[in-house]
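Ligand-bound model needed. dioxothiomolybdenum(VI) ion.
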Amino acid sequence: MTGVLNTVGAPLERLEGPAKVTGTATYAFEHRPDDPVYLHPLQATIARGRVTNIDTAAAESLEGVHTVLTHTNAERLASTPDSELAVLQSDEVGFRGQLIGAVLADTPETAHHAASLIGITYERHPHDAAFRDDSDVVYTHDGSNPMMSADLVHGDVDTALAAATFTLDATYTTPAEYNNPMEPHATIACWQDGELTLHDSNQGSHVVRAVVAPLLGVEPERVHVISPHVGGGFGAKGMPHSHVILVALAAKALPGRSVKCALTRQHMFSLVGYRPPTVQRIRLGADSEGRLTATGHDSLEQTARIKEFADQSANASRNMYVSPNRHITNRLAALDVPPGTWMRGPGETGGMYALETAMDEMAQVCGVDPIEFRLRNEPESDPSSGLPFSSRNLVACLREGAEKFGWRHRDPTPGVRREGDWLIGTGVAASTFPTLSFPGSMATIRCCSDGRYRVDIGASDLGTGARTALSQIAAEALEVSVEAVDLHLGSTTQPFASLAGGSAGTASWGSAIVHVARTFREEHGSTPEPGAETTATAPPNPAAGEYSMHAYGAQFAEVRVHADTGEIRVPRLLGVFAAGRIINPRTAHSQFLGGMTMGVSMALHEHSVTDERFGHVVNQDFAGYHIASNADIGSIEATWLDEYDPHVNPMGSKGIGEVGIVGTAAAVGNAAHHATGIRVRELPLTPDKFL
Ligand code: MOS
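Prediction:
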């Protein structure tokens, strides 16, 4: 049936592909209202203090300037504990780059020029933007991340380490990394008759509404968020950031006018979050057989003094491998810097870089092959919760990957393979990401006059192919061909859908669609009248809380390091994943390739540099902040096991958006060590570190 009806499992091309490649798919900023007003944001140039004066006279006297919005004239928002979103509500400055005003003008050029005429004076307070382990700034997070507690202590790691045959104690660092989707954030706001309409690039229109409406003191039904196409987000568009509030405030100041704001690439280095830098100490102890007896993972991450964000990178070590004694801690250093946010694989991406590098080091200490070392430490149930795994096929991924990659012929000795001036090595690392599903998503299915089915769900397609995958899920559930489904998403006019985040979009929305389709068939039969319609909410997963649910993968890298310059290349990557049932092999393959490519980028290039004297990122564009380009990527192969997980959701699928980046950087670093004998514990793996 699957092949015939093009439903789940068929490698369909993106349904909106032709619209995208012909330029007719409208992204947020491309919406063209009549007579728009352009917003140019003003940003603080100090890291901490107060704005004492903003001289707007020259700017406001320019022809074409409507007004300059500052904390002195902006409308009051409802009070909020979220200091990032309390835009223009006080004279306080909590980080360099913070929004302190906006120029509104008839053209972007006029707005930009007017902004240059504005004089701002400050009262400077001493600031601290130096990320370090120091009791002045370090604290235990107070639970802003509801997913997990800060610490997990089982047994006694110190005693176990003292008794261990083999031990490792190593510290790994990762820099702040910045989400850089192709489409920077953009918002158009229009306030009319007490209703606010936002054309906004986001990962959840209903989420934007839920945040914006109470801040502006309006009923959620009076806020409309429209977002049919999104050019990537990677977590930075998961929650609305300060610019959305600024544009909404501006629209309220100019009723009836549409206010347009497109963030620049530079803005993205202070206004929309980042993956916080980490310092992670890992201690491992093992017995003479290479079985882990102790795992210590202590992570320190940067957070902003004005708003806590915690990745909790150490938590990857809670349930990855068996170890009777575990000591997992997450600490934060609060600084006068912009707030961090989610970035692809938040927590696991940084945490597994450290853990999977340490596992490679420890395998060597124990004299065991790194794949065999992982097999020996494979848990039978979740070592942190004691729950059974809903499905866990890491071992099969490692075995299949080893076979495909030719691991059996590998000489484990580091630094002995050379072709001309290039040292050659191979490495492996494991991937994992939780299988989540957010509650409450709804969908509507209606039978149209032509006999086709219209499906409405307020979900987001970040460019990943969600629209296509959901159409396939709907078609399967209705037992019709995908051509008989007309799926609409991306707007608050559609039923509530949870965030496109946590690799949980397809699972959460698909669960709603399957449920509504079944209900529709019960109510209207298999030959419904045109106009027959059903709306319903996805029921909670009865297996939630009974199983530990995760996707897994094994990544293999071949690396070449130039003996004289330290230049590092990655000619070959292989990822083998176990991520449940694959809804659409074509778009899933792209997700895995994208994750692995971003992992190479993290391994080799991505490195923001903060000037601690001023509190800003110096390399705030693509000239200075390097991301992997085509020329950096050799052969990448991504494949997966045939896995169906009956417990996770009605589709048997797991999230695939994030697991692909997890482990890549460790695999590359482990291969670089195999090539050179040099163990780098600090990302990115730049040439200087191999000389
Ligand atoms: Mo993802 S970092 O949860 O958008």
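The first helix runs from residue 2 to 5.
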